[in-house]
Fold:
Amino acid sequence: GAPPAAAPSAAGPDGALTSEWRIERVFSKLKSTSGFPLVSPVMRLGLAVDVRLQFLAGDAWAGSSRNPKQKKFSQNGVNGADASNGSLRVKCVGAEDPAPFKFRVIVGNLTVGPFECRFGDNSVQDFPLGIDWRQHLEPRTGCLRLRVQALSD
Structure:
């Protein structure tokens, strides 16, 4: 299928720079990847950080009837309450280690965060969403819309 859509950064009403990732037919994509993370195209967060986002569906989805492998899902694999509803992984793809930055994620119309990203020695950071993303899909389309807003200090 077509790669997931990523929209360029745009300034929001409060001046925050926002990048959008639309995951069309999210359940179909998760099924085809057997629940492995879905990966965004490269996008810019804030003014200077190029990243790829990875969406991890979480244990709640893994144990649901929407997961074709749910019978194989074991409660022993639970990553803790934080990961049960999914998480967003941010991977720095630039050559340089960017300065720490803060951001929030808008899942559908619900805002979660703020989060602080400090890459340091690790080019990948995990941020548990803490909400059931399945309740925030676009009506009729089943699209998961993730908007990431870089916050200024």
Observations:
- Helices lie at 26-32, 59-62.
- The chain has one domain: 5-151.
